[in-house]
Specification:
This protein is mainly alpha-helical. Helix content is about 50%, strand content about 5%.
Length: about 400
């Protein structure tokens, strides 16, 4: 009897796995164009995005995906103001985001990785190195399952998802055209299944989660995508080093003197209007120095021919503070928004200050407050999204 039961379990398991294949293939066909688009915009490999979507949304059939277009199980966090749904996860009745369409879910997933400190090191890997990305996600704490990387890698290799990591945007759009010619009949067959009927009944958003992205949505973003390609590549090239105060845009080693003023290319850095006696650097096009042991804001102001009040204003201060060695001190007014490719920052843990973020990215605190609708005294919490370019969506 035990042998019969074991055989039945094996047979049922095989049948279930066999039935999943066409559903997974359809999921890949539906969402590969979106994954490729996000790869060019954010630097996250398309294969990783697709494998995570397959695993975390049960290839688009999970309640979160079907009822809320949430393919990656992204939770609400404290600054989420959109629609919500509640499910038991790590805790009972946790809040998950509901999106108007699944394209928003894919974009949010890319941003989740791109703008959080804990995932910065991933962007040092090539987009074709899916194994390093899969293992890196586990290392960064994306999932608690010790087998998470192996599951992603298996999906990537079983379904040849790595081919999308080298696909162009034009190829992705042609793929979408091909997918749409057969999409209507495939969607109808899927909706006729018992599982999908229970998930999608009476829910317009769930249909968009199964049908895949619209052609209009892809074309509407095409212009923005092309502009983002260079920014995404630059962001991958500089990766975390640029964001974590590694100094970029270095001023030539020869010092500037009052006798022989030297102009800097405005495309790289604005012209200095004061004398320099040591190396300075630029972040977001704004010159700065790092403080040395024993220096104060007053001594730095004096060294560079600035008023103390002026220097403090450049650094979002109203009064001098103790200056620890290695602190970034801007020598000109910071910019009103961050450089391209760094649209936002997602807070990883409580305790970070708004000023620290503004100093890190070379952006005026007053501008950041205006973009996000907050005050300088706003206390940041884990999961908060701080917009650094444009305005925060309501």
């Amino acid at each position: 009897m035990k042998k019969i039961v074991s055989i039945l379990v094996l047979v049922l398991g095989a049948l279930t796995a066999f039935a999943q294949v066409p559903q997974i293939e359809k999921y890949v066909s539906d969402w590969a164009p979106t994954a490729v688009r996000e790869m060019y915009r954010s630097g996250v490999p398309a294969s990783i995005t697709l494998a995570q979507g397959i695993l975390e949304s049960r290839y688009g059939l999970s309640p979160l995906a079907a009822n809320g277009n949430n393919h990656f199980g992204i939770k609400c966090h404290k600054d989420w103001t959109g629609k919500k749904q509640f499910h038991d996860d790590d805790e009972k009745g946790e809040c998950f985001r509901v999106y108007d369409n699944a394209d928003e879910s894919f974009r949010d997933h890319s941003d989740f990785l791109r703008y959080r400190d804990r995932y910065k090191f991933l962007f040092e890997f090539e987009t074709t190195d899916y194994k390093s990305w899969a293992n890196g996600l586990k290392k960064a704490g994306y999932a608690t399952d010790p087998g998470y990387p192996d599951k992603l890698i298996k999906y990537i290799e079983d379904y040849n998802l790595s081919k999308y990591d080298t696909m162009s945007l034009a190829e992705a759009e042609r793929l979408l055209d091909t997918q749409e010619t057969v999409g209507a009949s495939a969607v109808q067959q899927t909706h006729d299944g018992n599982n999908d009927r229970s998930l999608n009944k009476g829910n317009d958003r769930s249909q968009s989660a199964v049908e895949g992205p619209s052609k209009a949505g892809i074309k509407a973003a095409k212009k923005a995508e092309k502009k983002a390609v260079k920014a995404a590549r630059r962001a991958r090239k500089h990766s975390s080093a640029e964001e974590d105060d590694e100094l970029t845009g270095k001023i030539p080693d020869s010092p500037l003197s009052l006798e022989e003023p030297k102009k800097i290319d405005r495309n790289q850095l604005e012209e200095f209007k004061f004398s320099l006696t040591r190396e300075a650097y630029s972040k977001n096009g704004v010159p700065f120095v790092t403080s040395m042991d024993g220096e104060t804001y007053s001594s730095i102001a004096s060294r560079y021919g600035l008023f103390l009040k002026e220097l403090l204003k450049f650094n979002d201060l109203t009064a001098p503070q103790e200056l620890a060695p290695g602190t970034v001190v801007y020598l000109q007014a910071k910019k009103s928004q961050s450089e391209k490719g760094l649209d936002k920052y997602i807070v990883d843990e409580d305790g970070q200050s708004l000023r620290d973020i503004c100093q890190r990215f070379g952006v005026k605190m007053s501008s950041v407050c205006k973009m996000n609708g907050i005050t300088p005294g706003y206390v940041l919490r884990e999961g908060d999204t701080i917009v650094l370019r444009g305005k925060k969506k309501k």
